Amino acid sequence: MRNLLSTELFRIFRQRKTYYAIIAVFILEAIIMISAYMQGREILDLFLENLTDTFEFNGNLLNGNLIVYLVLNSFWFHIPLILMVVVSGFLTSEYQDRTVEAVLLQPVSKLKFIGAKYMAALLFTAFMLALLIVTTFLFAYLVFGDGDLVVYLEGLSFFEPHEAFSRLVWAFASGSGTMLFYAVVSLTLAVLLREATATWIVAALFLLVTTLLLRFDFGSEGLNTYFFPKLTDTWQALFYVEVPWDAILTKSLVLLGYSALAALLGIAVFIKRDIT
């Protein structure tokens, strides 16, 4: 298994699409920061326009903490889409060039082969998230500086710099679970569909539907709380005045369970199916 995993990681970082994904993350960050630099002040003034008659705002509200929060909101669609396209390609590309057949002709079990794929997908996702977190905080603070974070969630909330930083770090940690879920699902879709274009289309559709269902009221407390689309924004709860830590932990564990089920489905189908 260790040799298979090492081989997978070696292959991943020799592929051009891996670096396209890294560049895409940097471009996404750059677009958010450039937009904030050019228009952020006007948008923030418009956002707080109705409050300036009642409250006096001091300091720079367009700061690094707000920029990091804006990048966090890319967890809704952009970052998952990049990850799903790249991760699914770990397997679909090997189906296309028939590498899967060549490898399994060797004394390699299907379980170890597909297990190494899922482990590599998780490690790659963790690498991309670490890169995103480090560069986002670094560039946001270098360009925009520090300051209070203003967030509108069921009302306007302000967090002092040290508290804002802590909440942002925890939000990234919580959001990482969502990214790992999407990575696992994309690889399972690759197992089921095997063809690259079909997998990308279904992965994008899955992400789009999940995003839409996030705002849908199912009329059932259980579905509204524990159905997987409702778990993908758990990190947002970190910005309530009183953080519901128990609910965040519970939802994170449930989402981890969904990830495990998706992985088990993919592994079971891959082992049972005739590769040829």
What does this structure look like?
The chain has 276 residues and is an all-alpha fold. It has one domain. The chain contains 10 helices and 2 strands. Strands 1-2 form a two-stranded antiparallel sheet. Strand 1 and strand 2 form a beta hairpin. Helix 3 (64-72) packs antiparallel against helix 6 (110-144). The longest helix has 35 residues, at 110-144.
Topology:
Layout: H1 2-12, H2 16-47, H3 64-72, H4 78-96, H5 99-104, H6 110-144, E1 149-152, E2 156-159, H7 161-193, H8 196-214, H9 221-226, H10 245-272
Antiparallel strand pairs: 1-2
Brief account:
With 276 residues, this protein is mostly helical. α7 (161-193) runs parallel beside α10 (245-272).
